[in-house]
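Input/output pair, single chain:
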Amino acid sequence: MPQITIDLKEDLKIKEIYDKYYNKAYSFVRSYVYDKDAVEDIVSEAIIKLWQELKHKNDIEHNITPFLFSILKNMSLDYLRHLVVKQKVLDKLNTINQRELELRIMSLEDSSYDEILVREIQDIVDATILKMKDRTQEIFRLSRFELLTNKEIAKKLGITEKGVEYHISIALKMLRESLKDYINLIAIFPFLYNYYFLLGYSPYSFV
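Output:
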């Protein structure tokens, strides 16, 4: 992670934003921009721009992630489009490389915040489930993906319902910890509603 300048570090607000969002922002931009130095520049500049906007627009205070995503997307597109022009001028872009770069641009142009966020959350869910012990993982999958009741799971596996409840509680604890930075987003966006159920929340948990 590159260092931000001393004067910006002295501002606790931008340092808080930088520490909280840098890694996620970096991962997103790196998916489309393959030059690491360029990625670091884009992310750092985007965070500074976000900080500047926050100083003047209170209405984005509770929508920082979508706003930052929009900045990152536009800056990444600007970089890739400039790269195409530059390499064409230098005659260094062969047909295959040009097509690959154009596909990256098209993919980024078509990407929506909804899709990016769902993919990011689902990746965390999948990785967390794989970290669970075999029995816990099996019971959780039967509960959440095959929609069996605790009683049905207990009968299927030859264990008590209390045992089923125990393993599900362990799974939920792990998932809630892994997704703690996304809980507010799950509460805000309707397209994330299915994660209410996955995490064991009711639709009124965040009211």
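The CA atoms of residues 129 and 137 lie 6 Å apart. The first helix runs from residue 6 to 9.
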